Amino acid sequence: MDDAKIDATDVKATWEADELQVRAKLSSAGVASPAEMLSMSGQAVFDAMFAGDLPSAPIGETLDFIPIHIKNGSAIFQGQPGQQHYNPLGSVHGGWFCTILDSAVACAIHSTLPAGKGYTTLEIKVNMIRALTKDIPLVRAEANTIHVGRQTATAEGRIVGPDGKLYAHATTTCLVFDMKQ
Predict the structure, then answer these.
(1) Where in the chain does DSSP place strands (E)?
(2) Choosing a second label site near 76 at 20 to 30 A (CA), which of 36, 60, 107, 172?
(3) 3-state helix, strand, coil in the chain (%, to 5)
(4) What's the rounded Cα separation, in Å, for the pair 83 and 68?
(5) Rounded CA gap, 42 and 34, in Å?
(6) Residue 181: what pLDDT?
(7) What is the dihedral of CA 72, 75, 49, 11, to 10 degrees?
(8) Full DSSP string of 90-108
């Protein structure tokens, strides 16, 4: 076997092990108090979430994805596309692609924000390259910031499978603002 080739089985096993480690520490889904969010930097929020001190996001429970890593302007989310996410044509709905990518790109931005700053998605552009089905058991949305300014921030992300195949890519623009209690 060519060493340069990706062994999808090994990658999938590593990804599954990563997910088990994260799930072991995450607390149940919920929403943190505004006071907690206001007092913490974006990175501190994610550090507390990964330590189980803040709740995990309810959307991940609904759509079967979780954060795997968020630090210094980058984020990785991992998801299990399944038949419950299908559109009537028999493949994963575009909204699932968009939601996992929006989570990854926005959290990459959030990780760079100081305490007292919040964000919201102004725009997201998603290009779906190939269909996802339940036969693709695991994918990752990997994101990195492009620019983080006082009022706007941009990031890009990709959905990839364990075999390295690209399923979608996205860019986002987020509004950065002062949070109020």
Answers:
(1) 65-71, 74-79, 117-128, 139-148, 152-160, 166-178
(2) 36
(3) 35, 35, 35
(4) 23
(5) 13
(6) 75
(7) -120
(8) SSB-HHHHHHHHHHHHHHH
